[in-house]
């Protein structure tokens, strides 16, 4: 059994009613995948900062996930010569 460690760094910036998050994933060969997410608070909403943080981070991580899946599909296609239509979970 082999254990590998990848690191994710998340930076959250708040300004007025907008929260922005940037997620940076470092892969095993120093590949870098970056995702960005934004959350906007409506003027009528109560100011509960952690909700904006969580939403912006979720969106940033989703961006990282899409980037990583795109990279995996491209690598599979280059090795097999066949187009990847969908990557299943599990």
From TrEMBL:
SUPFAM superfamilies (alphabetical): Rv2632c-like (SSF143212)
Q: Which is a Pfam family this sequence falls into?
A: Rv2632c-like
Q: What is this protein called?
A: DUF1876 domain-containing protein
Q: Which organism is it from?
A: Streptomyces wuyuanensis
